[in-house]
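Sharing in case it's useful to others searching the archive later.

Someone asked me privately for the predicted structure of Equilibrative nucleotide transporter 3-like, so I'm posting the question and my answer publicly. Question first, with the sequence:
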Amino acid sequence: MTIVDGGESPSRLEGKISAMIVCWILGFGSLIAWNSMLTIGDYYYNLFPDYHPSRVLTLVYQPFAFGTMSILAYNESKINTRRRNIFGYSLFVASTFMLLVLDLATSGRGGLGSFIGICAIVAFFGVADACVQGGIVGDLSFMLPDFIQSFFAGLAASGALTSALRLITKAAFEMSNNGLRKGAMLFLAISTLFEFLCVLLYTYFFPKLPIVKYFRSKAALEGSKTVQADLAAAGIQTKDDHHEQNERLSNKQLFIQNIDYALDLFLIYVLTLSIFPGFLYENTGEHKLGTWYPLVLIASYNVWDLISRYLPSQGKALRLQYFLDSY
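And my answer, the predicted structure tokens:
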């Protein structure tokens, strides 16, 4: 195994562009399953017209996501981040595939039993989301801000691209027999493939990039225990003579120091869920767009979400260009 002491400059290391691409794919894969569920809401409303699927599935998803995230955040310093992220993406693969299996097993029929099965699978989506998003952001926080921006850009892109694909499939299958189901099956199959790709990239490719090795080794030398498994997977062993470590703040102290961010996140979630899917599936009357109305609203929301997430990275690029031009 290679022993790394963190002495090499990150500016000389290769793999930054590759790492940013992988981070984008990881972000895309961490939300494509849930976005697909929301985007094919018209199919589930056709199957379960009396169960308000989009509202109920959201209410099932969020408590499991929040509860799992709270447990993981409380035990963050003791958790193997590599296993957490691999488990999360693997759970996404299994859960999305089970939605396909459930639909095929029931031949696309509705009923209370099928709906309960979908709710159970969506609960696993919430657990997987809590594992992946918190774990990946925590992992990337040891590295460059560009990696986190790329990850969140992938999150936003998953919504925009699933909306675009949904509009295409609806137009393609609208006049065919059982078109809603065909479009839904296509969505779930694509989601399963992307989740599997994320497992492969994070497990085998991402840890071996030179720039990723550097930052994880640097974090380990500064006292981080959550990157040890990642370094071992890349064939790296850090020296035992770590630098003097600062005492870790308690969870309560960390929460108090970041309470403004916690409040911001809470308000963002309240606003987001009140609009999407809250408002979109209310009885808002008749529209010229007909059944296309919620899909167009979802697409509009996702496109502007994508634009807003990309603005910070583009603003940084413009400031850098202005700085270079000044000299």
